[in-house]
Structure formats: C-alpha cells, structure tokens
Amino acid sequence: MTTTETATEHHEHLVEQYSAHNYHPLPVVVAQAHGSRVTDVEGREFLDCLAGYSALNFGHGHPDLLAAAHRQLDRVTLTSRAFGSDQLGPFCAELSGLLGRHAENSGPPAPGSYRESWSGRLTVLPMNTGAEAVESGIKVARKWGYEVKGVPVDRAQIVVTAGGFHGRTTTIVGFSTDPDARGGFGPFTPGFVVVPYGDAAALEAAITPDTVAVLVEPIQGEAGVVVPPAGYLPAVRAVCDAARVLFVADEVQSGLGRTGHLLATRATGVDADVYLLGKALGGGIMPLSAVVADADVLGVLHPGQHGSTFGGNPLACAVGRAVITLLADEGPAGMLARARRLGDVLHGRLAALVGHGVVAVRGTGLWAGVDVDPRLGTGRDVSEAMMRRGVLVKDTHGSTIRLSPPLVITERELHEAVDALTGALSDLP
Ligand SMILES: Cc1ncc(COP(=O)(O)O)c(C=O)c1O
C-alpha cells in the first residue's frame, strides 16, 4: 500500500491488476459483516440491501448457520460421492420433507395428467451453484423426454423466456437474450426456444411434440424483479399438463423466503414438476444448490450419468440442514412471515415514491425492482448515491435498482434503506 492511497484504493488496485475484470463493483471493500450490516476496510458501516443477490437471505453470520458450519468443520468437510456421509441423506430427506409439506397449497394434479402416476415422493439432486442446478435440470428434462415421453433422440426442445437469467455456463448463456451475457461465447447448445415472458399464448404456441420442458423464473430477478401477470404461472402449468411437458421452475433467487413464501411458484397456487434451488440454500456460507423433483423424474439418472465432486458435501449439507430448520418455522416469528410483513412495509414506502423520481416499482416480499426516472440518472448513479448514504444496493439494466435485503433486517433498518433511496434521488442533479 502506498502512502497516498486509501485502504479501499489499495484493494481495488490489486483486483484491477490481478483479477479478471468481469465485474464492476461499487467502491466498497468489505472486511466484516454481521446480520444486515457490513463494515469495510476503512471502518465504514453499510446496510446490505443486496444480500449476496439473495444468497444471504438469513443475513451475515446467522448464529444457527454458523454453529452448524463450525460443528461440521471439526467433523468432516468432504467425502466426494464415492463414499457416503452422515449429512447427505438427512439433508435430502429434510429438503424433500420441507417442500413436500408445502405442496398441499397447489392441490393434486389434474385428472388424466401424466403426473397422476408419479410417486409423490420428492427427491433431491444436490449440486453447488445455481447454474449447475439449471444445467442439471436441463439434463434431467432431456433424459426424461427421451426415456419417458418418447421424444426421438437428440430432438428435445426446452422453451425458455426472454429476459430470463439462469446463470453463466455456455449452454445457459446460449439461450439468454442479453447481448452482454452471450456475445462472443458461441457456438451454443441447440434445443432452446425463447418466448416472451408473461405471455402464456406465446408459450403454448411454441410447444411441439419434441418439447420436454418449460424453464421459467416465477419472478424474473436479474431482469429487474419482473412479476408476471396474475394467472401466468397457472397457465404455464395448464400448458405443461396438456402437452406432457415438465414445468421447471428456476427458484434459485425467488425461492427460500425471498417473496415471503417458500417457493414463489406455489404462492400462485400451482406446483412445478422440477424446482431449481440455490443461493440461500447454502446460507451464504457454502455454495449449495439442488434439483428437487418427484422420484419418477429424477429417477432417469443412474450412476455415472451425472455428478459433482463437491455436490452434496457434508459441510454444505450441514449448513443446508440448518437453513431448512429456519425455513420450516411457519410461525409469526419465522423467516417467511417476517418477509411478508416487512415486505408490506417496504412496498408501502416504495409506492409513495412513484412520481417522485421513481417511475415504477415491482416485486413482492422483501424483493423490489425500482425504476428510477432516467432523467435523474442511471441505476448505477442511484446505487453510488445510496452507498454514500450508507446503504448498498445493485443496479440492473439502465435505470433500475433492485432491493433484496436480508430477511433478518429490522423494520427500522428498512426505513433507513428507503430514506437513503429518497435522499439519493434528491442528491442526483
Ligand atoms: C434465477 C437464477 N438462476 C440461476 C442463477 C445462477 O446462480 P449462480 O450464480 O449461483 O450460478 C441465478 C443467479 O443470479 C439466478 O438469479
């Protein structure tokens, strides 16, 4: 560190010189964090209203999650799947139990549906990152299509939606509609058809006898917290039922409490066939993702056909089990109730900003996309102004910022965040 540079500049220079330039972070270098707050290398404190893009739904260093991690660190951290561990089975059983218990909301499959014969037992394929869960879901859907639905070999098609975000692998960016995400990375994996988001008729028209799955975010997170029209997800369910197609819900960001519900799909009264989970499943401590589907769907995978060295490792599973325990509390003090209650406070305050520097607000629970009047500045300008007022958020797509504070945020802190947004809007020229 030179005598003239600040600690922040010192770290930024190291990253600039020795790290790939695939991010454009705010000039905050975090050294420590607790709950909803982070402290940077200069001792400045910030309210974290991004929460690791929802990976930190339970805040930084939640005591139950840290305790589970510490206990497991001293026992065993990795076995690979060549051997068993005493955390894998309980983790899968507990996640199956958590999602299965909530399935009552959505009722039984329609009479005559291909789902009627399924076992009713949810099974879990543990992976690490969200993108891996998506890739795994795609592989499972294709194999199910060939072996169960009878689609001719190598003809499987998956319908996806414009504006969606599902990760960064070559297959996934190949069906992205974001030029930055896909430009320069081709050639891409064939077999994907893109339709407009929120348009059930367009989705239905894209289905062919070779369609094996519809892959959709129940709320598009990275697109700016875009909530589809009411009735869209039930319509997706009906289209999938009619065409014998798997409804694959990417709940990597929307799931596990963010919306005040365990799953955003189920909050609309329908159940997907395949759930993709990630981010918060690892409690912000370990990368942990999962594909969750009926045993009759995941059953298409046999030894040697899919895997991951770290997927389902004991450390991640131990933290995941503690996450499941937090989410299983459906009482008024539980995370889901908290996100619903505080979500109402957040959206009440944000609605009052529309017409006062804000053009539109979307979202549900503790999740909001805020479109700032572009005449005031970009989303980046607003994020920087909020940072100067001690609140961290992230911009997305032009003049949109998204708020996704940890579910443990207090009501007072939430007001602090919206006050900072209000102040930031008035700071802009
Ligand atoms: C809906 C959705 N799916 C998948 C991913 C990819 O997750 P990861 O970054 O852990 O690979 C993300 C990440 O933002 C996401 O929001």
Features:
single chain; 429 residues; alpha/beta; Aspartate Aminotransferase, domain 1; Aspartate Aminotransferase, domain 2; 2 domains; 4-stranded mixed beta sheet; binds pyridoxal-5'-phosphate
Describe the protein's architecture and organization.
The chain has 429 residues and is an alpha/beta fold. A hairpin with a 4-residue loop joins strand 2 and strand 3. The structure holds pyridoxal-5'-phosphate (PLP). The site of pyridoxal-5'-phosphate has 15 residues, from helix 5.
Short synopsis of the structure:
This protein has helices at residues 7-18, 51-54, 63-73, 88-102, 130-149, 170-174, 179-182, 200-206, 232-243, 295-298, 314-328, 335-351, 379-388, 411-427, and strands at 30-34, 37-40, 45-48, 122-127, 157-161, 192-195, 211-216, 246-250, 274-277, 289-294, 358-363, 368-372, 391-392, 394-396, 400-403.
CATH top level of the largest domain? Answer: Alpha Beta
Q: Specify the number of helices.
A: 14
The set of bound ligands, ions and cofactors reads: pyridoxal-5'-phosphate
What is the makeup of the main sheet? 7 strands, mixed
CATH superfamily of the largest domain: Type I PLP-dependent aspartate aminotransferase-like (Major domain)
Helical amount: 25-40%
Share of residues in strands: 15-25%
Shape: globular
Reported CATH architecture of the largest domain: 3-Layer(aba) Sandwich
Biggest sheet, strands in spatial order? 4-10-9-8-7-5-6
One letter per element, helices H and strands E, the order comes to: HEEEHHHEHEHHEHEHEEEHHHEEHEEEH
Topology:
Blueprint: H1 7-18, E1 30-34, E2 37-40, E3 45-48, H2 51-54, H3 63-73, H4 88-102, E4 122-127, H5 130-149, E5 157-161, H6 170-174, H7 179-182, E6 192-195, H8 200-206, E7 211-216, H9 232-243, E8 246-250, E9 274-277, E10 289-294, H10 295-298, H11 314-328, H12 335-351, E11 358-363, E12 368-372, H13 379-388, E13 391-392, E14 394-396, E15 400-403, H14 411-427
Parallel strand pairs: 3-13, 5-6, 5-7, 7-8, 8-9
Antiparallel strand pairs: 1-2, 2-3, 4-10, 9-10, 11-12, 12-15, 14-15
Helix pairs in contact: 3-11, 4-11, 12-14, 13-14
The chain binds pyridoxal-5'-phosphate.
